[in-house]
Amino acid sequence: MLAVYNVEPWYIIDYVYTHISNAVLYGTNVVPPVSQELLEGMTIMQPGYDPLKATGVAVAWGVVTLVVSYLLMKRREI
Predict the structure, then answer these.
(1) Ramachandran bin of 77, using left for φ above 0, alpha for ψ from -120 to 50, beta for the remaining angles
(2) Is 16 exposed, middle or buried (0-12, 13-18, 19+ CB in 10 A)?
(3) In the chain, pLDDT over 70 holds for what percent of residues?
(4) Rounded to whole angstroms, how far apart are CA atoms 53 and 77?
């Protein structure tokens, strides 16, 4: 749904893992997204992939999860 509105959901975990698997299968070149017009006035975006951005987002999600779980466990121990 987001692709219809030309929004690249780079922050979604599933999207990130698709980028990383595409980089493993097709190489690590950055492929830019391409817009394609299906019907008059209706454009859809074919997403490209950026393995470095995807890896960075995956690491950021991991760090956020780690910090939140640490804070929750620290609060329980008190």
Answers:
(1) alpha
(2) buried
(3) 64
(4) 36
